Amino acid sequence: MRIPVKSLGAALIALALVQAPVMAAPAGSATSALGVILQTDHANIGSGLASNGATVFDGDTLVTGNNGQLRVGVGTSQAYLLPSSSATVHQAGQGFGATLTGGTVILSSAEGGSFRLVADGAVIRPNTPAATSGQITRVGPSELLLTARKGSLEVSIDDETRTVPEGTSVRMLIDPPDAAAPPAAPGSPSVFSAGSNHVVWFVLAIVAVGVTVGIIEATLSPSKP
Question: End-to-end CA distance of the chain, in Å?
């Protein structure tokens, strides 16, 4: 059977139009909408400038400048990057996941929500389903500062899991050198002993959880994209 040249040409064009979007999307590209930017100043998503209301996609890297800030809403959870910070975000369960590669991030989740942050091999998440707010600073490749501002945080690394109680700020040294680690502040002894995985914990301070938490929670009140 002979197929008219016109019909064959039209079929090939239609097929090319259907396949073009698929071929145009690079392998491994971020295609799932994750959240929305609620507040930004001197910040980037990947290599592009971040703007209020812009969509954040699974796999995006968020970066703030020396005087920058960036607040992202993901369902009932939020992430707030302080100046000179960077993190890559991912979809994760009831909330979102992120890998902190530098600086400081404040994470919050409403009751029933969640977040999962990876930093220096440690995994930080809410310890209970209650509303939780925590601040994590990556000091370097083997040191983290953790503050549980509302609710408690669960911190896991290898086969060790610890809880940071609400209102507590903790310094976490991961696989420190053989030299003795700097002591905790006077009057603030460690509540955690050295773990089997070469992790040392120090309580740095008991954080005032009244006005401070109120300010943070007001700033990071849950907001859906």
Answer: 56
Residue 177 has pLDDT above 70, yes or no: no
Is residue 22 domain-resident? Answer: no
Helix, strand, coil % in the chain, rounded to nearest 5: 15, 50, 40
Q: Is 8 among the domain residues?
A: no
Number of H helices, E strands in the chain: 2, 15
Share of the chain above pLDDT 70, in %: 66
Cβ 72 vs Cβ 53: under 8 Å? no
Predicted local confidence at residue 13, as pLDDT: 42
Are 147 and 167 in contact by the 8 Å Cβ rule? The answer is: no
Higher pLDDT, 41 or 183: 41
- Scanning 25-158, the segments in alpha helix (DSSP H) are none
3-class DSSP assignment, residue 190: coil
Domain that holds residue 102: 30-219
Q: What is the mean pLDDT of residues 71-82?
A: 93
Is 98 a domain residue? yes
9: in domain: no
* CATH at residue 174: 2.60.120.1440
Which of helix, strand or coil describes residue 111? coil
The tally of domains found in the chain comes to 1
Question: What is this structure's pTM?
Answer: 0.73
Query: Is the CB of residue 155 less than 8 Å from the CB of residue 161?
Result: yes
